[in-house]
């Protein structure tokens, strides 16, 4: 019996109403997979697509905690265990007020194929809460994390499901979460990654996503006979991914002129050099301040207040060679994509997950803008998480140099694989199709091997 991809998509839309981000992520992958269905007729028979859009397990739970004013607060916790065909569930935790089931499912779906691309044995998952760490005291964050883990601990483990960080979950949160996990289980294990290097973490995990994004982009350029030297770059966000993207871009001779947060963005025409980046890291990671303070320190820069990036983000209206969206999903809307193209952008590489809206991706492809899709370009973070699991398993930590070498190797392989699969199944240079197809095939074939589960 022949079932079209469009029919499966329609059924997915029907079964998941009001989940626009999840449908967006599924649609993008299915459009690429459509191109290989004739080569893999088994996928229809074994209902691979229908199974892939159904998470293996969704856990939703109440998270009560008491704030500094002794008021009871209630948040919602999630863990979406999407797919375990190629390894234990793996993926980050996001703490942000916008977190809902649609966002968790889109992230878990993307993670499944991203993790497959790393060539490590990692299944796909995502979790988090609508808790907002902004403006909370360290003790409030600790109490929240302890309450969150008091439910989550029974669902995770080093061979079951291994969470890590994402938006709003950095070293501080991982510490509180891991401490509570260890206490409840009476076990020191690698059930979480992104740990501190004193207590089982890997060197370079904080840097890994940003560095990996730039390694991937550098390989795209190398393939075209270009380099970063003297090139102007737009970077959005000012958190973990953005910071280390800027650090590596600076090292490779580029000039980064923008950064942002959910309140607005800064434009520094002279470039955000190593010293200015150090100020940003201190501001965001320790003082937990707003990016607007950059202008107070460096008055020649511009600051533009712009709280709603999903509407229109003037950051993308500056002229530059390359763009690196590193904040959040759909931060490049159709108008932003048009501005980038009109201003002659040559490459867009995604640090955030699904930062470009559907129309934007289509426009970049149509106009020949080099496009590095998130699930390939930002896979360096989870890849080093996988290396952290390997180090935990063997109880032998690796040097910074060894991790960096492995990360570079993994990112280069993901790039080359995206290119090769694009050429074989789609069109040369279509990194989006290449990454989707390469990531998908390994998971799909593993699902067939393991029967109907
Ligand atoms: P952080 O919390 O460290 O930083 C997020 C940054 O994006 C902050 O500057 C934040 O501003 C901004 N931001 C977040 N949400 C919004 C929003 N709704 N509107 C405008 N700005 C927003 O997170 P990460 O750097 O870790 O994550 C950034 C992106 O990268 C996410 O898409 C994440 O899923 C993805 N990613 C992260 C990986 C990791 O290892 N951490 C790995 C792969 C992908 P503010 O300070 O105001 O909140
Ligand atoms: O989106 C991502 O890949 C992450 N947030 C990292 C997940 C991980 O398990 O390291």
Describe the structure.
This protein has 453 residues and is α/β, with parallel strands linked by helices. It has two domains: 5-188, Leucine Dehydrogenase, chain A, domain 1 (Rossmann fold, 3-Layer(aba) Sandwich); 206-368, Rossmann fold (3-Layer(aba) Sandwich), CATH 3.40.50.720. Helix content is 47%, strand content 15%. It contains 17 helices and 13 strands. The strands form three sheets. Strands 1-2-4-3-5 form a five-stranded mixed β-sheet, with helices on both faces. Strand 1 (57-66) and strand 2 form a beta hairpin. Helix 2 (20-33) crosses helix 17 (431-449) and helix 8 packs across helix 15. It is globular and about 65 Å long. It starts with a helix and ends with a helix. The mean pLDDT is 97. Bound molecules: NADPH dihydro-nicotinamide-adenine-dinucleotide phosphate (NDP) and (2Z)-2-iminopentanedioic acid. NADPH dihydro-nicotinamide-adenine-dinucleotide phosphate binds next to helix 9.
Quick structural overview:
The protein is an alpha/beta fold and 453 residues long. The protein is built from 17 helices and 13 strands.
Name a few traits of the molecule.
5-stranded mixed beta sheet; 47% helix; single chain; binds (2Z)-2-iminopentanedioic acid; 5-stranded parallel beta sheet; globular; Rossmann fold; 453 residues; binds NADPH dihydro-nicotinamide-adenine-dinucleotide phosphate; alpha/beta; 2 domains
């Amino acid at each position: 019996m022949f079932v079209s991809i469009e029919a499966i998509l329609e059924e997915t839309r029907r079964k998941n109403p009001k989940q626009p981000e999840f449908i967006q992520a599924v649609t993008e992958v299915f459009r690429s997979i459509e191109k290989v269905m004739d080569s893999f007729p088994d996928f229809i028979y074994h209902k691979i697509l229908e199974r892939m859009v159904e998470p293996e397990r969704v856990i939703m739970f109440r998270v009560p905690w008491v704030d500094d004013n002794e008021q009871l607060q209630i948040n919602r916790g999630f863990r979406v265990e999407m797919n375990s065909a190629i390894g234990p569930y793996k993926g980050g935790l996001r703490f942000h007020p916008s977190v809902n089931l649609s966002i968790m499912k889109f992230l878990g779906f993307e993670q499944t194929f991203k993790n497959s691309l790393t060539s490590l044995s990692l299944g796909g998952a995502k979790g988090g809460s609508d808790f907002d760490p902004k403006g909370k005291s360290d003790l409030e964050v600790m109490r929240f994390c302890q309450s969150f883990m008091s439910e989550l601990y029974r669902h995770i483990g080093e061979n079951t499901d291994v969470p890590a960080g994402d938006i709003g979950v950095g070293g501080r949160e991982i510490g509180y979460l891991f401490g509570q996990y260890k206490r409840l289980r009476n076990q020191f294990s690698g059930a979480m990654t992104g740990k501190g290097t004193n207590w089982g973490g890997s060197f370079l995990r904080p840097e890994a996503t940003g560095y990996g994004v730039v390694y991937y982009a550098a390989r795209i350029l190398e393939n075209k006979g270009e380099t970063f030297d003297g090139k102007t770059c737009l970077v959005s966000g000012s958190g973990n991914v953005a910071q280390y993207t800027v650090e590596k871009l600076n090292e490779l001779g580029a000039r980064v002129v923008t950064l942002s947060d959910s309140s607005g963005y800064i434009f520094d025409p002279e470039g955000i050099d190593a010293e200015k980046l150090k100020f940003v890291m201190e501001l965001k990671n320790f003082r937990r301040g707003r990016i607007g303070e950059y202008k107070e320190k460096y008055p020649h820069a511009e600051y533009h207040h712009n709280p709603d990036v999903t509407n229109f983000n003037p950051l993308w209206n500056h002229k530059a060679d390359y763009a690196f969206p590193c904040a959040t999903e759909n931060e490049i809307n159709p108008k932003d994509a048009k501005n980038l193209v009109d201003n002659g952008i040559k490459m867009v590489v995604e640090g955030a997950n699904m930062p470009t809206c559907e129309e934007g991706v289509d426009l970049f492809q149509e106009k020949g803008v080099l496009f590095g899709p998130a699930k390939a370009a930002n896979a360096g973070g989870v890849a080093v998480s996988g290396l952290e699991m390997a180090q935990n398993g063997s109880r032998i930590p690796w040097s910074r140099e060894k991790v960096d070498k492995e990360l570079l190797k993994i990112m280069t392989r993901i790039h080359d694989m995206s290119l090769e699969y694009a050429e074989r199944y789609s069109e040369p240079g279509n990194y989006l199709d290449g990454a989707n197809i390469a990531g998908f095939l390994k998971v799909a074939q593993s699902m067939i091997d393991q029967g109907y589960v």
